[in-house]
């Protein structure tokens, strides 16, 4: 008979099994709890509401016998109902409630920084079911409690979780009911000619005109109607040290917001929930509230410019937009933004893989690429001066172009007839021409197409033309379009749209790796491309945190 095994002492007294999965687990007493506090509105700005919640939460902690609060998560004057549109790191779009402290609390509970949570009430904790489910998932995984001050709920218990879900749905309905009543009130105020929402730049909250800001707004209209660009107006205002509506520097978007606001000529602006359809926001006319007779509703406030000047500004905006399209400058489908830089949309943060943005840094005097940070669900830890990155990517494109030498097809490769190939080339060339023309003229057939989809379609057509030219070359005939394109000439003479078409043919993405702390010199190995096609003939340096000696040049690429 084999020797008897030795059962460890800790295994001789196992924890008793629960009769039901809904029964509460063993009574865990947190030693490092956290407190989550939130108020939706703090008119006085004294945080009195979250202060009172903290007092009650601390009393509840004492009653439960928990340890001292390790972390207090305060979200004062923060809503839990209204969702915002954000872009995920993979490029997808989602609508979520942005609450950084709530997300930090979830992360700390999951990682063990805190081992329990006390919140004031369910409606202070969440107003959207998806947020509640995120917390429940963490509680179920960690087996650490989340208890409320009022109602005695504890999300570690199954019945309490279902009660919290019902309360969350009721709180959500209350928020939606309130939002509906507020929206209806805003519509009634707008129809009566009253100012609604946040007070515009040139007016006080009571509707009286601020003469100093009215002069600045009038200056914006005057400069724009006499030919100045929107970006140029913003630079002029910043040069004169005039604060923007938010108190900082002027941006082209802030200038355009004043130019497109109907309020400056006395028309009522309304973009609320009672709009029957989404507005593209190409000019200010789509914001104007029309009366039952089809004419604009006039407000009760004093205008800054005449209706004629404002209408002329909208015509000028449309004229410049059409001129940009004729020049090949692309815009997003909603007409709100336009591409300014060749490589934006392809650059990715090397840490979190989020799409990188670009902006002009006036105090440095150059453009940077940067990870946008938590606002877009990114890390915000990588930034680069744009010029050396652009130069490196142009080198990679040149290497890619040199690799576009067609290998001859094998002799036994079956080929269509010369006529069939030429007809196919003509058909694809015509499709390409129609696509470019429709995009440049903002044809209605392409208004649902994003710029990236357009560039991808155009690059696909170019790839088909290259393959057909290769087949035609193998037959001994000469194609009307050269089999090897002069990419260098196209890049040098092409506009923004043409260059981005080439970029779409070369790269799927370009990852900008971190360079370490301080003003590190630019290292080409930190720019890691992902090519649209596998081209082994292109030489790329492997990524390394340590720059080589020959790369140590004076000056850094950090901003």
Which structural category do the helix and sheet elements fall into? alpha/beta
State mean pLDDT (0 to 100 scale): 78
Order of helices and strands: HEHEEEHEHHEHHHHHEEEEHHHHHEE
Overall morphology: globular
What does this protein look like?
This protein starts with 8 loop residues before the first helix and ends in a 28-residue tail after the last strand. The protein is built from 15 helices and twelve strands. The chain has helices at residues 9-12, 48-64, 100-111, 122-125, 129-142, 158-191, 211-225, 230-239, 252-260, 307-326, 386-402, 418-440, 451-474, 487-493, 496-506, and strands at 34-38, 71-75, 84-87, 93-96, 117-119, 146-148, 347-349, 357-361, 366-370, 383-385, 507-512, 527-531. The longest helix has 34 residues, at 158-191. It is globular, with a radius of gyration of 31 Å. The protein folds into three domains: 20-174, Resolvase, N-terminal catalytic domain (Rossmann fold, 3-Layer(aba) Sandwich); 211-326, Putative Large Serine Recombinase, Chain B, Domain 2 (Hect, E3 ligase catalytic domain fold), CATH 3.90.1750.20; 347-551, no CATH class. The chain has 559 residues and is an alpha/beta fold. Strand 1 (34-38), helix 2 (48-64) and strand 2 (71-75) form a beta-alpha-beta unit. The strands form four sheets. Strands 2-1-5-6 form a four-stranded parallel beta sheet, sandwiched between helices. Helix 5 (129-142) packs antiparallel against helix 6 (158-191), helix 12 packs antiparallel against helix 13 and helix 13 packs across helix 15.
């Amino acid at each position: 008979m084999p020797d008897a095994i030795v059962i460890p002492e800790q295994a001789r007294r196992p924890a008793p099994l629960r009769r039901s999965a809904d029964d509460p687990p063993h009574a865990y007493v947190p030693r490092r709890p956290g407190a989550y506090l939130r108020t939706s509105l703090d008119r006085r700005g004294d945080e009195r509401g979250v202060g009172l919640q903290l007092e009650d939460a601390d009393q509840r902690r004492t009653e439960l016998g928990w340890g001292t609060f390790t972390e207090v998560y305060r979200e004062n004057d923060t809503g839990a109902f209204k969702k915002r549109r954000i872009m995920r790191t993979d490029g997808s779009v989602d609508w979520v409630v942005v609450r950084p402290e709530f997300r930090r609390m979830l992360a700390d509970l999951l990682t063990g920084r805190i081992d329990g949570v006390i919140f004031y009430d369910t409606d202070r904790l969440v107003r959207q079911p998806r947020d509640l489910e995120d917390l429940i998932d963490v509680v179920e995984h960690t087996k650490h409690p989340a208890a409320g001050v009022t109602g005695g709920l504890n999300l570690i218990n199954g019945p309490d979780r279902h009660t919290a879900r019902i309360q969350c749905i009721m709180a959500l309905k209350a928020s939606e009911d309130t939002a509906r009543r507020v929206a209806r009130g805003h519509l009634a105020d707008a129809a009566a000619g009253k100012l609604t929402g946040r007070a515009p730049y040139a007016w006080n909250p009571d509707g009286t005109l601020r003469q100093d800001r009215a002069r600045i707004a009038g200056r914006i209209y005057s400069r724009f109607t006499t030919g100045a660009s929107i970006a140029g107006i913003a630079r002029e205002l910043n040069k004169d040290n005039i604060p923007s509506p938010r108190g900082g520097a002027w941006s082209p978007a802030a200038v355009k917001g004043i130019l497109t606001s109907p309020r400056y000529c006395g028309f009522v602006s309304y973009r609320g929930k009672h709009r029957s359809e989404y507005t593209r926001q190409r000019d200010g006319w789509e914001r104007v509230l029309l009366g039952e007779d089809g004419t604009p509703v006039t407000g009760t406030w004093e205008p800054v410019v005449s209706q004629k000047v404002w209408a002329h500004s909208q015509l000028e905006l449309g004229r410049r937009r059409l001129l940009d399209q004729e020049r090949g400058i692309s815009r997003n489908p909603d007409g709100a933004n336009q591409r300014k830089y060749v490589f934006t949309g392809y650059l990715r943060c090397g840490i979190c893989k989020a799409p990188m943005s670009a902006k002009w840094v006036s105090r440095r005097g150059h453009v940077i690429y940067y990870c946008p940070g938590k606002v877009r669900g990114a890390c915000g830890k990588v930034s680069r001066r744009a010029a050396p990155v652009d130069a490196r990517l142009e080198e990679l494109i040149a290497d890619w172009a040199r690799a576009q030498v067609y290998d001859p097809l094998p002799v036994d490769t079956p080929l269509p007839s010369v006529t069939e190939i030429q007809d196919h080339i003509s058909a694809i060339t015509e499709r390409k021409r129609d696509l470019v023309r429709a995009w440049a003229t903002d044809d209605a057939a392409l208004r649902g197409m994003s710029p990236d989809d357009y560039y991808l379609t155009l690059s696909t057509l170019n790839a088909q033309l290259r393959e057909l030219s290769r087949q035609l070359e193998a037959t001994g005939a000469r194609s009307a379009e050269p089999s090897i394109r002069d990419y260098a000439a196209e890049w040098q003479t092409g506009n923004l749209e043409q260059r981005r078409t080439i970029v779409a043919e070369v790269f799927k993405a370009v990852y900008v790796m971190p360079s370490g702390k301080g003003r590190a010199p630019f290292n080409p190995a930190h720019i890691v491309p992902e090519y649209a096609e596998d081209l082994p003939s292109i030489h790329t340096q492997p990524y390394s945190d340590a720059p080589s000696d020959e790369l140590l040049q004076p000056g850094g690429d950090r901003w």
